From TrEMBL:
GO biological process, one term: regulation of DNA-templated transcription
Residue span, BPL/LPL catalytic domain: 69-257
Residue sites binding biotin per the record: S92, T93, N94, Q116, K187
GO MF, one example: transferase activity
Organism: [Clostridium] polysaccharolyticum
Identification of the protein by name: Bifunctional ligase/repressor BirA
Top-level division of the source organism's lineage: Bacteria
First-tier enzyme category under EC: ligase
PANTHER family (alphabetical): BIOTIN PROTEIN LIGASE, BIOTIN--PROTEIN LIGASE
Matching NCBIfam families: birA_ligase
Family per similarity comment: Belongs to the biotin--protein ligase family.
E.C. no: 6.3.4.15
Pfam families found in the cross-reference section: BPL_LplA_LipB, HTH_11
Function: Acts both as a biotin--[acetyl-CoA-carboxylase] ligase and a repressor.
Lineage of origin: Bacteria, Bacillati, Bacillota, Clostridia, Lachnospirales
């Protein structure tokens, strides 16, 4: 770890409090000039650091730049499960992690970007990923589970994100089958899971779980085409909530991941599901069907009482509330 990274770690651990230059130098076993250079470099990267004579340096409470140091102080990662990589800008965190997976990267690699220029949703649309306001994160997994439990990765992640949002923001979070998170009827998060597996053995080579969360409202606001159906977790915030959210999501997801086949998250997934009890239309390859959603089963299929009196399960399809706009594609 460089002097700059070590300096940031100390400042993060004392966020909002002054740390003297002498204390930093002694802690890091470097000269005070080296500390001064590290501070200047951090300021050039955008960190709001106050310097006061005879008091030292203080990282502002309002600083919300993502860094390994800002995340790890909230992360319950005593066994070193995650290898965090923070990038300024990428085309797509999922694409980057897939490349690293093919190069032999270990499970637990997490790539987080301040900005994506070509992030994507399950539908194929571009996921709006402006600089400095969201969480754009992909996690590399090498699960030992069978293909029949593949759905559990996305659904457990959905519950982990919903829990994390409620913990940090105190806003109620619901799951829009099968992979989106909504607050007050608007989408705040999308999850895209991509995998490579061996047909002969039915085992996974790797899984890349991508999570995009709209955390804070960009200065220019949301694009017109998203404004009526997309929201941010916070309208205004002056704390490092993005780092807190990342840590909460990773910690909660990893707990589920260790027990995927027992589906410890399923009951909560069902409780948080927006569609249960609602009349919907379902657009599939075979055509459009209508019915009332009864439940989500143990395979996370949508169980629907159809208008013709039959009961069917759906593992995929575009679902709409009747007389409403399109909500989600499974």
């Amino acid at each position: 770890m460089s002097v700059k990274q070590k300096t940031l770690e100390v400042l993060e651990n004392h966020r909002g409090k002054f740390v003297s230059g002498g204390e930093l130098a002694n802690t890091l076993q470097v000269s005070r000039n080296a500390v001064w250079k590290a501070i200047k470099s951090l300021e050039q990267e955008g960190y709001d650091i106050e310097a006061v004579k005879n008091r030292g340096y203080r990282l502002a409470e309002s600083s919300d730049i993502l860094s390994e140091q800002s995340i790890r102080k909230y992360l319950s990662d005593t066994r070193g499960k995650f290898q965090l990589e923070i990038r300024k800008s990428v085309t797509s965190t999922n694409e980057l992690v897939k490349q690293q997976a093919l190069s032999g990267a270990e499970e637990g690699l997490v790539v987080i970007a301040e900005e994506q220029t070509c992030g994507k949703e399950k539908s194929g649309r571009v996921f709006y990923s402006p600089k400095g306001t969201g969480i754009y994160m992909s996690v590399l997994l090498r699960p030992k589970i069978s293909m029949k439990h593949a759905f559990a990765i996305t659904t457990s992640a959905a519950v982990a994100v919903a829990q994390a949002i409620e913990q940090v923001s105190e806003r109620k979070a619901e799951i829009m089958w099968v992979n989106d998170i909504y607050c007050d009827g608007k989408k705040v998060c999308g999850i895209l899971t991509e995998a490579s597996y061996q047909m002969e053995t039915g085992k996974f080579d790797y899984v890349v779980m991508g999570i995009g969360i709209h955390v804070k409202l960009p200065e220019s606001g949301m694009p017109v085409e998203l404004g009526s159906k997309t929201d941010c977790v916070f309208q205004q915030t002056e704390t490092d909530v993005r780092s807190q959210l990342v840590a909460q999501v990773l910690t909660r997801f990893w707990d589920f991941y260790q027990r995927l086949e027992s589906l410890p998250f399923l009951e909560e997934y069902i409780q948080r599901s927006c569609f249960i009890g609602k009349n919907v239309t379902i657009e599939t390859k075979e055509g459009i069907r209508e019915g009332n959603v009864l439940s989500v089963n143990r395979q996370c299929h949508l169980v629907v009482a159809m208008d013709d009196g039959t009961e069917e399960e759906f593992s995929a399809g575009t679902v709409r509330l009747k007389n409403d706009c399109k909500l989600n594609t499974g």
